[in-house]
Amino acid sequence: MNYIIYDLEFTVSRSTRYSSEIIDIGAVKVSPIDDKGNLGVVDSFHTYVRPSNKSVLSTDTIQFTGITQKDIDAAPLFPEAVQQFIEWLPDTYYLCSWGPDDKSKFLSHCRTHQVKVDWIRNHNDIQKQISRALRKEGGSRQLGLSQALTMCGIPFDGTQHRALDDAINTARIFIHHFEHLKLAENSAADEEGTKSKLVYSSGDDDKHNPFGDLAKLLGPSNS
């Protein structure tokens, strides 16, 4: 079986006129690498995505992600970018992300751009299971990726808030906890009434909040 660990990055906007758009797709394929069934990263995928509604990146977006206007100007629009991703996917796979927001964004973008969602299948949010496993005392708060890595004794490799780097690091946690994960089979095409909702919450403790850095960047705004 193949396990696709992916991550998305979005535009950051203070305006309510524009919803955040996907600007970065990164993924790795995790598969058995020996006859003992040990898992490893065997392939990767990456593309930037040019936003459809607001093609000029905000200063906040550039500051938070490190993605430049030059990166975006040369990138495909979402329909072409996601098609490249779909063509890269193997015949059978589980899709795994750190948190629920990436799936929601994929769904909303596919529906906006009239792209079929039948490829979004066997999707699992591994953040919830791994957070529960690492919080043996029973805490309910979800762990951010960096904190989970630290608790596993795994140093972060690369740059945070870059899709491929985050996907690679998520894959390292996935492999580390694989024996304790229970992955569900499902199909987005069969789901009804799914709505996209991406919430950036400042929270009281940024170490436990995966979007704490973003909330701190945005801060209070009167716009």
Unreliable runs: 192-211
Arithmetic mean pLDDT:
86
Taking strands numbered 1, 2, ... along the chain, how are they ordered across the largest sheet?
3-2-1-4-5
Characterize the main sheet: 5 strands, mixed
Q: What is the CA-based Rg, rounded? A: 17 Å
Output the structural class: alpha/beta
**N- to C-terminal distance:** 48 Å
Shape: globular
Q: Tell me the helix content.
A: 25-40%
Question: Would you count the extended β strands for me?
Answer: 5
In terms of DSSP E residues, the strand content is 15-25%
Walk me through what this model shows.
By secondary structure, the chain is α/β, with parallel strands linked by helices. Helix content is 33%, strand content 16%. The protein has 8 helices and 5 strands; from the N terminus they run E-E-E-H-H-H-E-H-E-H-H-H-H. It has helices at residues 59-65, 69-73, 78-88, 101-112, 126-134, 145-152, 163-176, 212-218; strands at 3-10, 22-32, 39-48, 94-97, 123-125. Strands 3-2-1-4-5 form a 5-stranded mixed β-sheet. Strand 4, helix 4 (101-112) and strand 5 (123-125) form a beta-alpha-beta unit. Helix 5 packs across helix 6 (145-152) and helix 6 runs parallel beside helix 7. The chain is globular, with a radius of gyration of 17 Å. The N and C termini lie far apart (48 Å).
Structure in a nutshell:
This protein is α/β, with parallel strands linked by helices and 223 residues long.
Task: Tag the structure with descriptive keywords.
single chain, 223 residues, alpha/beta, 5 strands, globular
Strand and helix map with partners:
Layout (H helix, E strand, L loop, with lengths): L2 E8 L11 E11 L6 E10 L10 H7 L3 H5 L4 H11 L5 E4 L3 H12 L10 E3 H9 L10 H8 L10 H14 L35 H7 L5
Parallel strand pairs: 1-4, 4-5
Antiparallel strand pairs: 1-2, 2-3
Helix pairs in contact: 5-6, 6-7
